[in-house]
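Lab meeting, item 3. Inverse folding demo.
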Protein backbone atom coordinates (compact mmCIF):
# COMPACT_ATOMS: atom_id res chain seq x y z
CA UNK A 1 0.00 0.00 0.00
CA UNK A 2 2.91 2.36 0.60
CA UNK A 3 3.70 2.10 -3.11
CA UNK A 4 0.12 2.92 -4.04
CA UNK A 5 0.16 5.97 -1.82
CA UNK A 6 3.45 7.09 -3.31
CA UNK A 7 2.07 6.66 -6.85
CA UNK A 8 -1.05 8.65 -5.99
CA UNK A 9 0.99 11.43 -4.42
CA UNK A 10 3.41 11.74 -7.34
CA UNK A 11 1.40 11.13 -10.51
CA UNK A 12 2.00 14.55 -12.03
CA UNK A 13 0.80 16.15 -15.27
CA UNK A 14 3.70 15.55 -17.65
CA UNK A 15 4.11 18.07 -20.47
CA UNK A 16 7.60 17.39 -21.78
CA UNK A 17 8.71 14.08 -23.17
CA UNK A 18 11.85 12.43 -24.47
CA UNK A 19 11.70 11.06 -28.01
CA UNK A 20 11.74 7.48 -26.77
CA UNK A 21 8.92 5.55 -28.43
CA UNK A 22 6.22 3.97 -26.32
CA UNK A 23 5.80 0.47 -27.72
CA UNK A 24 2.51 -1.38 -28.02
CA UNK A 25 3.43 -3.96 -25.39
CA UNK A 26 4.01 -1.23 -22.80
CA UNK A 27 0.81 0.50 -23.81
CA UNK A 28 -1.09 -2.77 -23.55
CA UNK A 29 0.34 -3.36 -20.07
CA UNK A 30 -0.75 0.13 -18.95
CA UNK A 31 -4.27 -0.32 -20.32
CA UNK A 32 -4.47 -3.83 -18.86
CA UNK A 33 -4.17 -2.28 -15.39
CA UNK A 34 -6.27 0.81 -16.15
CA UNK A 35 -9.26 -1.30 -17.24
CA UNK A 36 -9.97 -2.19 -13.60
CA UNK A 37 -11.43 1.29 -13.14
CA UNK A 38 -15.01 1.52 -11.90
CA UNK A 39 -17.86 2.66 -14.17
CA UNK A 40 -21.61 3.08 -13.65
CA UNK A 41 -23.20 -0.38 -13.77
CA UNK A 42 -19.78 -1.72 -14.73
CA UNK A 43 -20.68 -0.87 -18.34
CA UNK A 44 -17.06 -0.01 -19.21
CA UNK A 45 -18.07 2.32 -22.00
CA UNK A 46 -14.58 3.62 -22.66
CA UNK A 47 -12.85 3.32 -26.02
CA UNK A 48 -9.22 4.27 -26.64
CA UNK A 49 -7.76 5.48 -29.92
CA UNK A 50 -3.96 5.26 -30.02
CA UNK A 51 -2.55 8.00 -32.23
CA UNK A 52 1.13 7.94 -33.22
CA UNK A 53 0.90 9.49 -36.69
CA UNK A 54 2.60 12.92 -36.49
CA UNK A 55 0.16 14.63 -38.83
CA UNK A 56 -2.85 13.28 -36.95
CA UNK A 57 -1.35 14.37 -33.62
CA UNK A 58 -0.73 17.82 -35.03
CA UNK A 59 -4.32 18.05 -36.28
CA UNK A 60 -5.60 17.09 -32.84
CA UNK A 61 -3.53 19.88 -31.32
CA UNK A 62 -4.75 22.38 -33.93
CA UNK A 63 -8.36 21.40 -33.24
CA UNK A 64 -7.87 22.16 -29.53
CA UNK A 65 -6.39 25.62 -30.00
CA UNK A 66 -9.61 27.73 -30.13
CA UNK A 67 -10.68 26.19 -26.81
CA UNK A 68 -7.29 26.91 -25.28
CA UNK A 69 -7.29 30.48 -26.55
CA UNK A 70 -10.61 31.05 -24.85
CA UNK A 71 -9.19 29.46 -21.68
CA UNK A 72 -6.16 31.75 -21.74
CA UNK A 73 -8.28 34.84 -22.44
CA UNK A 74 -10.69 34.01 -19.60
CA UNK A 75 -7.78 33.46 -17.22
CA UNK A 76 -6.38 36.86 -18.24
CA UNK A 77 -9.80 38.39 -17.48
CA UNK A 78 -9.71 36.87 -13.98
CA UNK A 79 -12.41 34.29 -14.73
CA UNK A 80 -12.66 30.54 -14.10
CA UNK A 81 -12.35 29.38 -17.71
CA UNK A 82 -15.21 27.45 -19.28
CA UNK A 83 -17.33 27.44 -16.14
CA UNK A 84 -21.09 27.37 -16.70
CA UNK A 85 -22.16 29.27 -13.59
CA UNK A 86 -20.69 32.76 -13.82
CA UNK A 87 -21.26 34.63 -17.07
CA UNK A 88 -18.11 35.41 -19.05
CA UNK A 89 -17.04 38.85 -20.21
CA UNK A 90 -14.89 37.31 -22.94
CA UNK A 91 -16.38 37.07 -26.42
CA UNK A 92 -15.22 33.76 -28.01
CA UNK A 93 -15.61 35.29 -31.48
CA UNK A 94 -13.06 38.03 -30.85
CA UNK A 95 -10.54 36.22 -28.67
CA UNK A 96 -6.98 36.96 -29.72
CA UNK A 97 -4.11 35.26 -27.95
CA UNK A 98 -0.41 35.26 -28.79
CA UNK A 99 0.99 31.92 -30.05
CA UNK A 100 3.40 32.01 -27.08
CA UNK A 101 0.45 31.73 -24.69
CA UNK A 102 -0.55 28.36 -26.15
CA UNK A 103 2.93 27.00 -26.87
CA UNK A 104 2.83 24.83 -23.73
CA UNK A 105 -0.10 22.96 -25.21
CA UNK A 106 1.40 22.63 -28.70
CA UNK A 107 4.52 21.12 -27.10
CA UNK A 108 2.44 18.12 -26.05
CA UNK A 109 2.73 16.90 -29.66
CA UNK A 110 6.28 15.77 -28.75
CA UNK A 111 4.74 12.88 -26.86
CA UNK A 112 5.23 9.67 -28.84
CA UNK A 113 1.63 8.62 -28.28
CA UNK A 114 -1.67 10.42 -27.97
CA UNK A 115 -4.47 8.43 -26.37
CA UNK A 116 -7.88 9.76 -27.26
CA UNK A 117 -10.16 8.42 -24.54
CA UNK A 118 -13.74 8.24 -25.73
CA UNK A 119 -17.02 7.16 -24.16
CA UNK A 120 -19.94 5.23 -25.61
CA UNK A 121 -22.97 7.32 -24.68
CA UNK A 122 -25.29 4.39 -25.39
CA UNK A 123 -24.11 2.59 -22.26
CA UNK A 124 -23.53 5.45 -19.83
CA UNK A 125 -26.05 6.08 -17.05
CA UNK A 126 -26.18 9.88 -16.97
CA UNK A 127 -28.11 10.11 -13.70
CA UNK A 128 -28.12 13.92 -13.75
CA UNK A 129 -29.55 14.18 -17.26
CA UNK A 130 -32.76 15.90 -16.08
CA UNK A 131 -31.12 18.47 -13.82
CA UNK A 132 -30.99 22.06 -14.96
CA UNK A 133 -27.20 22.25 -14.93
CA UNK A 134 -24.25 20.94 -16.88
CA UNK A 135 -23.88 17.15 -16.73
CA UNK A 136 -21.13 15.77 -14.51
CA UNK A 137 -22.19 12.19 -13.87
CA UNK A 138 -21.36 10.76 -17.30
CA UNK A 139 -17.73 11.68 -16.80
CA UNK A 140 -17.62 9.58 -13.66
CA UNK A 141 -17.78 6.50 -15.89
CA UNK A 142 -14.65 7.40 -17.82
CA UNK A 143 -12.30 9.63 -15.79
CA UNK A 144 -11.44 6.99 -13.16
CA UNK A 145 -10.20 4.95 -16.15
CA UNK A 146 -8.24 7.95 -17.45
CA UNK A 147 -6.61 8.51 -14.06
CA UNK A 148 -5.80 4.80 -13.87
CA UNK A 149 -3.94 5.17 -17.17
CA UNK A 150 -1.80 7.91 -15.64
CA UNK A 151 -1.19 5.88 -12.48
CA UNK A 152 -0.28 2.71 -14.39
CA UNK A 153 1.97 4.69 -16.72
CA UNK A 154 3.73 6.31 -13.76
CA UNK A 155 4.23 2.90 -12.18
CA UNK A 156 6.08 1.76 -15.33
CA UNK A 157 8.22 4.90 -15.66
CA UNK A 158 6.05 6.60 -18.31
CA UNK A 159 3.95 9.73 -17.80
CA UNK A 160 1.17 11.75 -19.34
CA UNK A 161 -1.37 14.48 -18.76
CA UNK A 162 -5.12 14.38 -18.78
CA UNK A 163 -6.33 17.10 -21.16
CA UNK A 164 -9.86 17.93 -22.27
CA UNK A 165 -9.71 20.98 -24.58
CA UNK A 166 -10.08 18.65 -27.53
CA UNK A 167 -13.68 17.91 -26.53
CA UNK A 168 -14.79 21.36 -27.68
CA UNK A 169 -14.01 20.23 -31.23
CA UNK A 170 -15.72 16.87 -30.86
CA UNK A 171 -17.41 16.72 -34.31
CA UNK A 172 -14.06 17.33 -36.04
CA UNK A 173 -12.33 14.76 -33.83
CA UNK A 174 -15.05 12.23 -34.59
CA UNK A 175 -14.51 12.82 -38.31
CA UNK A 176 -10.72 12.61 -38.00
CA UNK A 177 -10.74 9.39 -35.97
CA UNK A 178 -13.82 7.81 -37.57
CA UNK A 179 -15.75 7.82 -34.30
CA UNK A 180 -19.52 7.30 -34.60
CA UNK A 181 -21.63 10.17 -33.24
CA UNK A 182 -22.61 8.30 -30.06
CA UNK A 183 -18.95 8.01 -29.05
CA UNK A 184 -18.08 11.15 -27.08
CA UNK A 185 -14.56 12.50 -26.78
CA UNK A 186 -13.59 12.55 -23.09
CA UNK A 187 -9.87 13.25 -23.02
CA UNK A 188 -6.62 13.47 -24.91
CA UNK A 189 -3.72 11.96 -22.98
CA UNK A 190 -0.24 12.55 -24.38
CA UNK A 191 1.92 9.72 -23.07
CA UNK A 192 5.63 9.00 -23.17
CA UNK A 193 8.88 8.96 -21.22
CA UNK A 194 9.02 12.11 -19.07
CA UNK A 195 11.99 14.43 -19.53
CA UNK A 196 11.78 15.18 -15.84
CA UNK A 197 9.97 13.34 -13.06
CA UNK A 198 8.18 15.67 -10.67
CA UNK A 199 7.46 14.39 -7.18
CA UNK A 200 6.18 17.39 -5.24
CA UNK A 201 2.62 18.22 -6.28
CA UNK A 202 0.73 21.27 -5.06
CA UNK A 203 -2.66 20.40 -3.59
CA UNK A 204 -5.04 21.95 -1.08
CA UNK A 205 -5.07 20.36 2.39
CA UNK A 206 -8.00 18.07 3.31
CA UNK A 207 -9.23 20.59 5.86
CA UNK A 208 -9.86 23.11 3.08
CA UNK A 209 -12.44 21.05 1.20
CA UNK A 210 -13.96 18.57 3.68
CA UNK A 211 -17.04 19.66 5.61
CA UNK A 212 -18.57 17.74 8.51
CA UNK A 213 -22.27 17.00 8.09
CA UNK A 214 -23.22 20.06 6.01
CA UNK A 215 -21.44 22.39 3.61
CA UNK A 216 -21.33 25.09 6.30
CA UNK A 217 -20.28 22.62 9.02
CA UNK A 218 -16.80 22.50 10.61
CA UNK A 219 -13.88 21.33 8.50
CA UNK A 220 -12.40 17.87 9.02
CA UNK A 221 -9.55 18.18 11.47
CA UNK A 222 -7.15 15.22 11.68
CA UNK A 223 -6.07 16.26 15.18
CA UNK A 224 -9.65 16.08 16.50
CA UNK A 225 -9.93 13.05 18.87
CA UNK A 226 -13.71 12.61 18.14
CA UNK A 227 -15.56 10.54 17.32
C1 LIG B 1 -10.20 18.04 -16.67
C2 LIG B 1 -8.73 18.32 -16.81
C3 LIG B 1 -8.26 19.01 -17.92
C4 LIG B 1 -6.90 19.26 -18.07
N1 LIG B 1 -6.44 19.88 -19.21
C5 LIG B 1 -5.12 20.06 -19.38
C6 LIG B 1 -4.60 20.60 -20.59
O1 LIG B 1 -5.32 20.90 -21.53
N2 LIG B 1 -3.27 20.75 -20.73
C7 LIG B 1 -2.42 20.39 -19.74
O2 LIG B 1 -1.21 20.54 -19.91
N3 LIG B 1 -2.87 19.87 -18.58
C8 LIG B 1 -4.19 19.69 -18.39
N4 LIG B 1 -4.66 19.12 -17.24
C9 LIG B 1 -3.72 18.77 -16.18
C10 LIG B 1 -3.83 19.75 -15.01
O3 LIG B 1 -3.31 21.00 -15.39
C11 LIG B 1 -3.06 19.14 -13.86
O4 LIG B 1 -3.76 17.98 -13.44
C12 LIG B 1 -2.93 20.08 -12.68
O5 LIG B 1 -2.32 21.28 -13.05
C13 LIG B 1 -2.08 19.44 -11.59
O6 LIG B 1 -0.80 19.18 -12.12
P1 LIG B 1 0.26 18.31 -11.29
O7 LIG B 1 -0.39 16.97 -11.10
O8 LIG B 1 1.49 18.22 -12.17
O9 LIG B 1 0.49 18.99 -10.00
C14 LIG B 1 -6.01 18.85 -17.07
C15 LIG B 1 -6.47 18.15 -15.95
C16 LIG B 1 -7.82 17.86 -15.85
C17 LIG B 1 -8.29 17.05 -14.65
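The presenter then showed the designed sequence:
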Amino acid sequence: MADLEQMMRTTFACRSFSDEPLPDHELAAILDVARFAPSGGNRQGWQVIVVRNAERKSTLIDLSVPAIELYVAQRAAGENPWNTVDPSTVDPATVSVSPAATAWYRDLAQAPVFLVVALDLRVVASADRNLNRIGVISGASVYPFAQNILLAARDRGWAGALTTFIAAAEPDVQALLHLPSHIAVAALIPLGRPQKVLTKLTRKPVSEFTHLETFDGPKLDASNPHP
